[in-house]
Design goal:
It contains nine helices and eight strands. Strands 1-7-8-6-5-2-3-4 form an eight-stranded mixed sheet, sandwiched between helices.
């Protein structure tokens, strides 16, 4: 697990520049708030989302997810009892956590009613399930009391936040003291050859496949634009710290296309 950057001032300035870029990248046209555009985009692509997620990650998303949950449990020091999954989408991470934490109460929250419709459809396959719930809401202002969860997770959602610092502060608010935040987010490789292959894949194949599968010509172009503009590695942990989180660390997974971020309250 890599600690925050050595040059804190440089890392903070880089984070500031990237944060401005990430928050100004819009799924559609300028003029409407990013949160509303993100909601519309995910409503549009919801039916194709699970397939495209597996396709885009070449099936690696389950490995990344499980690795992140192992690290989060190690940081917490025990199995969580109450978990919130922010930007839960179709609930993949919620159901993965149900397998790992069978006795935990798990809540998923998302802006998109279309994504939550699919998550709730999946939940119907478990008619006796009582410890999973899904809630539609804005992660900038969640209808959840303070200090409600001992773990908060968010996978591939932070770069879509309208205001990253505010989103992190809100997740910190609902964490209990000593609780753990676990973020899985897409990133760009650093090494030259993996970066070249990554750009060919994300700028070429993914937008074409996404357009064909989802019917939304813009959504999967927004994907690579938002990844490239988003703060990564030490720049991301600098934002987490500025929101009041502590012990912020990051780990990049091979080939550098995803990072796991951990923080505590």
């Amino acid at each position: 697990m890599t600690e925050k950057g050595i040059d804190n001032d440089a890392g903070s300035m880089t984070g500031h520049r990237q944060r401005q870029g990430a928050e100004s990248v819009m799924p559609y046209t300028p003029g409407e708030a990013k949160g509303k555009q993100v909601e519309s985009m995910f409503d549009s692509i919801a039916p194709a989302y699970d397939f495209m997620n597996a396709c885009m990650s070449l099936g690696m998303h389950t490995h990344w997810r499980n690795h992140a949950l192992r690290l989060a449990c190690r940081r917490l020091g025990r199995v969580p009892e109450d978990v919130l999954d922010v930007a839960t989408g179709t609930g993949d991470l919620v159901f993965a956590m149900r397998r790992r934490y069978p006795h935990a109460a798990i809540t998923g929250i998302d802006l998109s009613g279309g994504m939550l419709e699919i998550a709730r459809r999946k939940l119907q396959e478990f008619p006796d399930e009582r410890n999973i719930s899904f809630l539609q809401g804005d992660c900038m202002d969640m209808p959840i009391p303070d200090d409600s969860f001992d773990m908060v997770t968010v996978a591939y959602g932070v770069r879509n936040f309208e205001d990253m610092k505010r989103g992190y502060a809100e997740m910190r608010r609902v964490l209990r003291p000593g609780g753990v935040l676990c973020v899985v987010e897409l990133s760009q490789p650093v090494s030259a050859i993996p970066l070249l292959l990554y750009k060919v894949y994300t700028r070429g194949f993914i937008p074409v496949a996404g357009r064909l599968m989802s019917g939304d010509p813009r959504a999967y172009s927004y994907l690579h634009e938002s990844i490239e503009a988003a703060p990564q590695r030490s720049a991301m942990t600098a934002i987490m710290e500025s929101a009041g989180l502590r012990d912020c660390t990051w780990k990049s997974l091979f080939p550098g296309a995803v990072c796991i971020y951990l923080a505590s309250k």
